[in-house]
Amino acid sequence: MLSDQRIWYAVSSIITRINSAVVKHGTENLAWRIGGPQGSGINRIARLFARACAAQGMEVICRREYHSNIMGRHSYNDVVISAQALQCHRESTDILVTFDAETLCRHVHSLKPWGFALYADADGDVGLGRLPYLDQRLRDDLNAALSAAGLPETTQGLLEMAEQRGVRTVCIPYQALLERLADQLGMVKKAVSATQNMLAVAISAALIGMPEQALLAALEQTFLGKEHIVRMNREAVAIAYNHAQQLQPHVFRISLHGQASPRLLLDGTQSVALGKLAAGMGFQSYYPISPATDESTFLEARAEVRSTRGETCGPLVLQVEDELAAINMASGAALTGARSATATSGPGFSLMAEGLGWAGMNEVPLVITLYQRGGPSTGMPTRTDQGDLLFALHAGHGEFPRIILASGDVASCFYDAAQAFDYAERYQTPVIQMLDKALTSTLQTVPVFDTAAVTIDRGAVLASSEQQPQAVERFALTASGISPRPLLGQPGTWYWSTGVEHSEWGQVSEDPVLREQMMEKRAHKLALAAAEIPLSEKLEIHGDEDAAFTIFTWGSNKGAVLDALQQLSDRGIRARAVVLRLLWPFPADAVQALLQSASPSVMVECNYSAELNSLFVQQARRGCDHLVLKYSGRPISAEALLPQLVSIQAGDAGYRNVLRNAYE
Amino acid sequence: MGDDTLKTTLSAKHYQADQINDWCAGCGDHGILRALEKAMAKLELARDQTAVFGGIGCSGKTPYYLNVGGVHTLHGRVLSFAAGAKLANPALNVIAIGGDGDGLSIGAGHFVNSGRRNLDLLYILFNNGVYGLTKGQAAPTLRIGEKTRSMPRCVIQQHMNPIALAVISGYTWVARGYAYDVPALTDLVVAAMQHRGIAFLEVLQPCPKYNDLHTKDWYGDRLYKLSDDGYQALIAAETDAASVQQIYNEALARAAQWGELVPTGLFLQDLSKPDFRSQLAGLQPGIARRPPCQCVVTDDSGRTQIDLEPLFETLRIAADSSQT
């Protein structure tokens, strides 16, 4: 164990080392990681820390990794801090904050050589065999490395191994600090033990030079209205800051001077939820499923929204019995003219396939937010994956049009969610907005959303009639394929609709000519969407537009790709990135043209089989020259992607390149 | 307004759509359709403010034959579609229709959970004991050991009791009618539509083609009306728990009757439970003023007028604290 004297020495040299390291790598950011057992408030405390950093004017991007478990299993959060806008998390970290031995075992290898491990005194010498939740594979790997280095199979061995490669380890006497806190509050230690994570955060906040007041402000915002918790944690912060003084104040202080413009700090689910509200969504039905549920519960708690004129106009958000009910109820609501949606993940979407087809057949404007997670079957409910693209494209029997949008970052989740309703109503067909778990749980500072940019296009709606009510054609054959849409309950009209093949009147018909007309009508809407939707809404091109080196991607990899692109540029490597947003109808012409001028071309995806690339082959008649894939259930980062891109550019890489990290 | 409510009289004929009906001659469905038309006329339901949803199977075709909004949905899912429409536009008169296979087998989850919600709509279950459209397989209402004409073997699973299931699932109005007694069935539909909350109406109907066990002759003298037996189905709003329990017990006892005597009429009307809308209004008063179908608010140029500022405020990183 290090003495305080040694800590002072170690710490005082670190600022220079961190700074020189980040400058050398051109990232100018600091990665902070906290881990611990689920149920110990890790996520909330990490959000609190991120909020405090953001309030200092810094940009933050946070990643959350957790198990499908309520209590006990390991979870961790990364907060990357920078004065500049951030696009990607980091796999390595500069500061690791732990208060259990398992976290130390899992993450000490991810520390940069100049990094810092803050660990609890109790965890300084724990046998790896005593940690029940440590995966056997990881335990075996760590033990093998330890015995190869001649070190004991304990946390002490791991700490020593880390120190040998330059990592500084700082022991925090949590139990003593908790005892002090309990004494000050006149409580028993057990009653204050939940503040351990606050102590951990506060010590690291003090060490990076964050003013105590900033952390306290974030604390009060996080626990708004929970006076008792705030009071207890306030004391904990004071004790932690006091303790940090002993570790040499502000010892790896980073420059906390960022921009002053107002920003939002939110995650992908919240961004989608706000986009839906902005679009005037009236109805959302859902069934609980990870990681989609957070969006619906966020909405449920905030459904009483108002217009600028003060009218209440919030949606009805309802938890129902299953995903079949969720999608079909949303369709039923959409028939009345309510902008309707559901949100789900892979297993739930599998159940929705039937209802999706009904909506397609009945030309129902319906929005489905699909939060991808690791599959197949139950798969990995809380881990990321992009393995549902081809499924989303083909779900449901028979042929019907659908529009598929993929959001690439937290901010675009908002605008995409809002626009999804426009597409749905304009083309009277289901729209699937795809996210992945990584984006879902990415917490990030973003510019405040511009609601004035949200314009609403309700598509062709049949005018209400002042006449005697009469039946109208729901599926009138038109040149565009779009029939002016009557609504259930609209004064003056009624109509029939059906999942059976039908006439213009929505009456059963199996006439071959009518069948052809209806198939053509529905298909034509997709062609119309492909023609009408501007290229800027189909894909984005970043970097050097004239460069031949072209990196294609979709979804949450966007951040990693753009970050890597910047670093390529810093190294003088010309490259461009193409991020696809509209995945169906597929922008075949644009992709074909880009592929023709691409050399080499690279596809970056978070799945095994390169699903978007196979769509390229099918639709643009050519795939990419190289694939960079990851399917461990963890997201792609720029730091892992960059070396692959460099070797591809140098001609050193093969066709298929898999990104791996055994310590995520 | 083009609203039908301004029209003085609407007869049953006004509710008949000009469509060719492809149900078999003698099918009980015809009687149910007649009762629906008559009930709609009695209630003078505005045709543009009424929607009938059908499941899959012969019964599911009912919406085609009625001159009101008609939505032919999916097998077992009719209640979900109907509920979505009712929730989004509470002014709509909503009737969901499905067969016994549709509602009790593939749609059983929705059947049970719809009772829990107590939405103000009517669910009519056409019970003929068989899957007619797929040529006579056993529906879950057929009893163990029974074998109809086209089944290769007898039923080796227990049957379900739709009335009992409705009672314990929370339906607040539960009744049984008979397809060939159109006047009584009409009265039941009228009463069901007037009930505030979810109404379940089971209609016994022979399937002349595939169910050769439960024929018109079989039903013959077995059917009796609960009201003729002095049966009391009503639970008033302020009824004490013990009395409520007593009526539920009695409803379940009557629901179990089958064989020599088969009860029809109202088994239960429970006014002591809150309906969905009043529950929701307690949590979200705005919904009562502006239903989901009217949530889109824009200015003249189509820009959204939803005010997200209060929500942004909770997520905002304040500008002033950035100056620290």
Description of the molecule:
With 664 residues, chain A is α/β, with parallel strands linked by helices. In chain A, strand 23 (601-605), helix 23 (611-619) and strand 24 form a beta-alpha-beta unit. With 324 residues, chain B is of the alpha/beta class. Chain B has one domain: 3-Layer(aba) Sandwich (Rossmann fold), CATH 3.40.50. Chain B is built from 11 helices and 13 strands. Chain B has helices at residues 28-43, 78-88, 100-106, 108-117, 162-169, 182-194, 216-219, 241-255, 276-283, 285-289, 309-315, and strands at 50-54, 69-72, 93-99, 122-127, 130-131, 137-138, 173-178, 199-204, 223-225, 234-235, 262-270, 306-307, 316-317. Residues 320-324 of chain B have low confidence and may be disordered. Chains A and B meet through helix 3, helix 10, strand 7, helix 12 and strand 8 of A and strand 1, strand 2, helix 2, helix 4 and helix 10 of B. Strand 18 of chain A pairs parallel with strand 2 (69-72) of chain B.
Portion of residues in helices of chain A?
40-55%
CATH architecture classification name of the largest domain in chain A: 3-Layer(aba) Sandwich
DSSP strand tally of chain B:
13
Number of helices of chain A: 24
Mean pLDDT of chain B: 94
Give the class of chain A from helix and strand content and strand pairing: alpha/beta
Backbone CA Rg of chain B:
23 Å
Q: How are the secondary structure elements laid out?
A:
The complex is a heterodimer of chains A (664) and B (324).
Chain A: H1 4-12, H2 14-25, E1 29-37, H3 42-55, E2 59-65, E3 74-82, E4 93-98, H4 101-107, E5 111-120, H5 136-148, H6 155-164, E6 168-172, H7 174-185, H8 189-192, H9 196-207, H10 212-222, H11 227-246, E7 263-267, H12 268-278, E8 281-286, H13 293-301, E9 306-307, E10 316-319, H14 323-335, E11 339-345, H15 346-361, E12 366-372, H16 389-394, E13 403-406, H17 410-427, E14 431-436, H18 437-440, E15 443-447, E16 470-471, E17 493-494, E18 496-498, H19 512-532, H20 535-538, E19 539-543, E20 550-554, H21 557-570, E21 576-580, E22 582-584, H22 588-596, E23 601-605, H23 611-619, E24 626-629, H24 638-649, E25 656-658
Parallel strand pairs in A: 1-4, 4-5, 5-6, 8-10, 8-11, 11-12, 12-14, 13-14, 16-17, 20-21, 20-23, 23-24, 24-25
Antiparallel strand pairs in A: 1-3, 2-3, 2-15, 7-15, 13-22, 19-21
Helix pairs in contact in A: 3-9, 3-10, 7-11, 9-11, 10-11, 12-13, 12-17, 14-15, 21-24
Chain B: H1 28-43, E1 50-54, E2 69-72, H2 78-88, E3 93-99, H3 100-106, H4 108-117, E4 122-127, E5 130-131, E6 137-138, H5 162-169, E7 173-178, H6 182-194, E8 199-204, H7 216-219, E9 223-225, E10 234-235, H8 241-255, E11 262-270, H9 276-283, H10 285-289, E12 306-307, H11 309-315, E13 316-317
Parallel strand pairs in B: 1-2, 1-3, 3-4, 4-8, 7-8, 9-11, 10-11
Antiparallel strand pairs in B: 5-6, 7-11
Helix pairs in contact in B: 1-6, 3-4, 4-5, 5-8
